[in-house]
TrEMBL record:
GO biological process, alphabetically ordered: nucleotide-sugar metabolic process
Keyword terms: Lyase, NAD
Lineage: Archaea, Methanobacteriati, Thermoplasmatota, Thermoplasmata, Thermoplasmatales
Pfam families with a match to the protein in the record: GDP_Man_Dehyd
Stored CDD domains: dTDP_GD_SDR_e
InterPro entries per record: dTDP_Gluc_deHydtase, NAD(P)-bd_dom, NAD(P)-bd_dom_sf
Domain (NAD(P)-binding): residue spans on this chain: 5-295
Protein name, as recorded: dTDP-glucose 4,6-dehydratase
NCBIfam families in alphabetical order: dTDP_gluc_dehyt
Molecular functions (GO terms): dTDP-glucose 4,6-dehydratase activity
Known cofactor(s): NAD(+)
Amino acid sequence: MKTFLVTGGAGFIGSNFINYLHNNYEDYIINLDKLSYGSNLNNIKIDSRYKFIKKSIGDDITEIIDNTDYIINFAAESHVDRSIASPESFVSENINGVLNLLECIRKSKNDPVLINIGTDEEYGDTINGSFTEQDMLKPSSPYSASKAASSLLALSYFRTYGIKTMVTRTSNNFGKYQFPEKLIPKTIIRNLLNLDIPLYGNGRNIRDWIYTEDNVRAILTVLFKGKYGEIYNISSNNELENIDIVEKIFDLMGKKGNIKYVSDRPGHDVRYSIRSDKLKNLGWKPEYSFMDALKLTVEWYINNEKWWKPLIGNNTLSEEPWKLKWD
């Protein structure tokens, strides 16, 4: 039996990872999370081979790492709009926190494998073509810049200190347990509440979407089949304009909402697109079609008001969150 340390494991992707890992493997899981606004222990649906520790990756967790085989670092500030309004916490968590995590690994008596979870936003946007792992980074927001820095730090610790690190860069995730401030859950919830559906600019910005369970399986593929010191893009190649996403949600809900076009956020990327051939060569492929996954997600939010209702407020469902001042 191996031991997984999942940092940020009470967040959206982290909790989906823990639930999948527990249901499909026999390993022991340590969930380390500081329980910030996007964390929710109610996401975790297991009660064996599991331990929760309330700590941050900025803390000294060397002793925990001493007894760990694999570290999957999901811990991050992750909302672009919040990074525009209040960038300081993104530097603290996504850069300084990852630096501290790497130092704890370096000081540890153990030799664990680390996967540092990144984002396709590190590459910036592109009008034509798709980014590969060899392309230059050109982040547009404090969020994506902080994630790019964390990826480069992780890779530098492989080169300099021999730490067993790998980096994933994933396209936009969606699925159950996603915090309501993100496009898909916000659209579903605001439509349920008969509120306008805000779209930035002309609504034509393009994002590449992946169902979170497909992302979880991709991360595990990288962990068990990937090469240390390497980057792996993760994409299902579901490129859609934001307005198309909203219209598809309306169709699945059987309820046509009112779209409200609001002012565009600063530095808004036009189109994200990455190639994941390198990952597919390891044997991974997505199992869910976009529409099947979106249907599952819409149904989950409709049927789980008790989960999302305590989380919403004027700020969480704000039409223009980048204009707000976040703590």
